[in-house]
Amino acid sequence: MSGGPSPRVLRLGMVGGGSGAFIGAVHRMAAGLDSRFRLVAGALSSDASRSLASAKELGIEGFRAYGTWQDMLERESALPRDQRIDAVAIVTPNATHFAIASAFAQRGIHLIIDKPMVTTLVDAVALREITRKAGVVCCVTYNYSGYPMIRHAASLVRDGALGAIRKVVVEYHQGWLATPLERTGQKQAAWRNDPSQAGAGGSIGDIGTHAEQLLRAVTGLRIRELASDLTTFVDGRALDDDAHILVRLSGPNASAKAKGLITVSQVCVGEQNNLTLQVYGERASLWWRQEDPNSLTLATLDGPTQTLTRGTVASPSATAATRLPPGHPEGFIEAFANIYRGAADAILAKESGPTAPTATTYPSVEDGVSGIAFIDACIRSRAANGAWVAVGE
Length: 393
Prior knowledge:
alpha/beta; nine-stranded mixed β-sheet; 12 helices; globular
């Protein structure tokens, strides 16, 4: 940006994400990339001694290193408004999100929550109401919607380049849980396969919600109904590790018969983080792959198939999400940082008063509710032997 003062750097607290936690480190890198946030406080582990040790490693001043999130909430809330944290990043197991988020929101502290937002639809709707009443931003870090070429794909759909959407296919395949890794003591595998910590969804919660949000972010459509086939391939595992989900879509860009398929798996040997999106319209189609995120393929009825690349497309949304010139790849951290930047813009807009325009370039509490409604519908469909069920609140 140019032509004006730099925006205020926001003070960030973090709950969870201490030493050895992959996603905590990702959040910190993303938060700091554009110098929009500065980590000043943390309750970084459910174990008080580990929390304090992690804070010391990260250079958090001792008086703002907390043994518990409750202690952090009370002591930060007691500080003058120009000193306390502006926002809290919540990167703990899913089942803890609601209690932490609702408590901080009610003290007027903005929320940045790792997905899925909570574990039940009742809590999702309740948190939405709490954040509305408190007037706080609630960002859910569906980071894949931060990629420049995903934002360009959304611009193409909105501008009518594809015509009415007929079919959408989202695949998200991993292989890291092809064996019972959770029984070896691997922490990330253990809590993700524990219903008391992860909630009712295994693969559908961990990566399926990413697929559902990406579908909506690009197409602007919503899943009206779905039929799910959830499988647990690894014997003894408590949650699903593979899913095929048929969806019926509706929205202003949709054909009257618009349909789609979401397939997710964490037991596909050889797959790493293979998230792909295919959108088929009446006049054109597009394809995107997360492991090659700087490219987007566009095919039309009356022209050659094109490979569009980041830095060469001119849509405002893609340009705003791009940092480097063409030929200098951008990736996962930069996309994640775009989500944090959108949240920062929204928080500062809130400071400017209720009449200020609110930034929308981040996944909001509505995306969080939609993800939980998706999980809820998948579970209900499985209970009905794969029958079609409505997706709603």
